[in-house]
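Hi everyone,

Forwarding the result from last night's run.
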Amino acid sequence: MDIAIRNVTIEDYDKIYELWISTEQSKRALNPVDDSRDGIARYLRRNPTTCFLACPAEDPQRVIGVILTGHDGRRAIIHHMCIHPEYRRHGIARMLLQKAEEALRAEGITKVFGLVFKDNETANAFWESQGYTLRTNLNYRNKSLNQAVPQGE
């Protein structure tokens, strides 16, 4: 299968959102503010060169994978990676990750991390296979600054 990879634009939002809700793991990571069209537009303005989507080469309008990666000038975070369930096990996640890592290196970023639900065994195995180690010496803490954004478990 030939895959085309390109930068995400806000015009892709509806197709990306449709992809996100195609899988329970991605759906549960979404929140109504940060993952809204406005939230993603803000994210893309800050990170125009580090977010990518994948499409079948013969159907460039069909979004089958996406990775949203951003940084603060020092460290990067992978905020969302999702591959459509029908297109998994074809190397698409690896291709998107490699593209994002290349873009981050080009911007001088030397460290990247991602968040994965503990119970998502498939995703955790993927990240491990790509050299992402599990940090056990840190606690991840968050605080919602907007009542519409869930605090999390």
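The first strand starts at residue 3 and ends at 7.

Cheers,
N.
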